[in-house]
Amino acid sequence: MKRWMIGVVLTVCSPLLWAFDTAELAQTLQKPQNVQGSFVQQRYLKSLSKPMTTQGRFVLQPRRGLLWQMQKPFENRLRVRSDGIMQWNGKNWAAASGSKSAQSQQIKLFLDLLGGNTAGLQQQFDLQLSGNERQWTLRLIPKTVVMKQVFTRIDISGDSVVRKIELNEKQGDRTVMTFNGINTNQALDAFAQAALQ
């Protein structure tokens, strides 16, 4: 009888049986048709005493792409889709400059981070998830040679959407992105619709 009671207690209290897992996290983050809001990005460089700060708005369609509209310190619009990073030149979208292979890896990583593609992330990182659906933190520890050369770790936190991403780089620099004023499943403006179609 005692053994049976201990078994029941262990089963009920087992964190493994009741834990929030990466598959559930992926489902949570992929529920919305779109996510819109504002962002503040702070880049901490070892060589500077103050972070470089940018602000703006974003629109994410988890299966389509990301529209990143920087407003401060200057205006810049980027579109991140599986076909590449494009920059708005005022009339149309033009390919952003940079190395194609490095760019494609960055694109995939960023879309996987924001869109909750944990299966994609697991190919390059060991995932350590804590918390529950209402408040979680996901730590990514690089496991591929390429990611180990760039990052020491990436921390992502949120609830039904991603609220914060912190990228810790191998050379000691750090980038922190916070997302605020978030709305899900709202109509997109004409520019965002055209950019992400």
From TrEMBL:
Q: Which SUPFAM superfamilies match?
A: Prokaryotic lipoproteins and lipoprotein localization factors
* Taxonomy, superkingdom: Bacteria
InterPro entries attached to this UniProt entry: LolA/LolB/LppX, OM_lipoprot_carrier_LolA-like
Print the keywords alphabetically: Signal
Signal sequence: where? 1-19
Indicate yes or no for the key word Nucleus.
no
Mind telling me which CDD domains this protein's record contains? LolA
**PANTHER family, sorted:** OUTER-MEMBRANE LIPOPROTEIN CARRIER PROTEIN
Name of the protein in its database record: Membrane protein
Q: Which organism is it from?
A: Neisseria arctica
